[in-house]
Design goal:
The protein has 396 residues and is an alpha+beta fold. The protein contains 14 helices and 14 strands. It holds the Pfam family AlkZ-like.
Length: 396
């Protein structure tokens, strides 16, 4: 890189990660909304991930379940909705308009077109009929407050109608109108997930009308989302940014220009930070360990991960589709995996070679985090949605 471009090495990137992702003892948050705000988004594909990710970052983990449920379903400071890469996340409510305009609109247009096309191929009613069903469904949902698809079908029976999806393909299936329509409405930002039918580990959700938000300019929203994320995760490469957002490279570059992102040098090549953030950061005052869940936003934050996750560990810690499982962290890098057994015990294994002097303090710190995790989870039992080799082995 040319003169004036600062190099940010692996050790400093790990220090930034620990501090900005609230994983050190001194940086833990006071409430779940603070965690989500710091990380921009919490992965929500596996419902338990949201709570486990919050619990790992709270000063008082005993507040995890009640605090997160209150933020999601009472105070509504957090919202579960579709976001980047057509994935379900939990966002701060104030960010919903930004996410919707920056990533949701383009996906929503494709999803609606796909639904209309699929129904037409199956000989189902036309788009006008679908619009009627949609309107009455939203009215029913507003009246009920929160409802399951089955409950909504009591008010709008046409939601029960079925059609063949992808006829003749290997993934052919029979879908109800409710299954596809509610998904489209979710991506369009008209409905969001409400309370689960069971406990915080349940993946069966009610639906609720989405909170109102202003319609933003797409380019301005992309710039704001990228600024928020780069503040937390910078430095990051263009490949990282394109992967995390799901945008085209032209959109990433436009957003980088709009926020005046600053160029730095990282081991992978050119990286970016927000303006004024290229200077050095202090190392965390104390060594730290963390047990993070599968799909945690830190583990899944970057596409290029060698600086915090050694390639030789990946076969044990990822499933066949690239989903990370539960991970053990020590001072900014992944060093092992963990699992919960049927009796509630939290078990873990170090996979990285830490060396003699480092291994003992790491083991002591990880054991303390395992006890901390078991303490706030209580009687809850969690099996990750996407299971990995080391998690299966440890939980057996």
């Amino acid at each position: 890189m040319g003169d004036g471009v600062r190099y940010i090495g692996t050790a400093e990137r790990r220090a930034r990660l620990g501090l900005r992702h609230r994983l050190t003892g001194a940086t833990r948050a006071q409430d779940p909304a603070g965690v989500a705000d710091s990380l921009v988004a919490l992965h929500g594909t596996d419902p338990a991930t949201v709570y486990l990710a919050v619990g790992a970052r709270l000063a008082d983990p005993a507040k995890t379940v009640a605090g997160t449920e209150r933020a999601l379903y009472e105070d509504r400071t957090l919202v579960r909705m579709h976001g980047m890469r057509h994935t379900v996340f939990v966002f701060p409510t104030e960010l919903t308009a930004v996410v919707h305009a920056s990533t949701g609109l383009a996906v929503a247009a494709r999803e609606r077109a796909s639904l209309v096309k699929s129904m037409a191929k199956a000989g189902a009613p036309d788009a006008a009929w679908l619009a009627e069903v949609e309107e009455s469904t939203l009215v029913a949902l507003a009246r009920r407050g929160q409802a399951t698809a089955a409950e909504l079908a009591q008010d709008e029976p046409r939601l029960r109608e079925r059609f063949v999806y992808a006829a003749g393909k290997s993934y052919e299936g029979v879908h109800t109108v409710s299954t596809r329509l509610l998904r489209v409405l979710g991506v369009e930002g008209k409905v969001v997930r409400g309370r689960p039918l069971g406990s915080w580990t349940s993946s069966q959700f009610r639906w609720a009308v989405a909170p109102e938000h202003p319609e933003l300019d797409a380019a301005a929203a992309q710039a704001e989302l990228l600024r928020r994320w780069l503040t937390v995760c910078g430095p990051a490469t263009e490949a990282d940014l394109k992967w995390w957002t799901g945008w085209k490279v032209t959109e990433v570059r436009r957003a980088l220009t709009a926020i005046g992102a600053q160029t730095v040098s990282v081991d992978e090549g050119t990286g970016y930070v927000v303006q004024g953030d290229a200077g050095p950061v202090d190392d965390p005052a104390e060594p730290w360990a963390a047990l993070l869940p599968g799909l945690d936003p830190t583990a899944m934050g970057w596409q290029q991960r060698d600086w915090y996750l050694a390639p030789e560990l990946r076969p044990s810690l990822f499933d066949g589709s690239g989903n990370v499982g539960p991970t053990v962290w020590w001072n900014g890098r992944v060093v092992g995996g963990w699992a919960q057994r049927g009796d509630g015990e939290i078990v873990w294994r170090l996979l990285a070679d830490l060396g003699g002097e480092e291994r003992q303090p790491a083991e002591t710190a990880v054991a303390a985090q395992a006890e901390r995790l078991r303490g706030w989870m209580g009687a809850a039992r969690v099996t990750p949605r996407f299971r990995t080799p080391v998690e299966k082995e440890l939980s057996a």
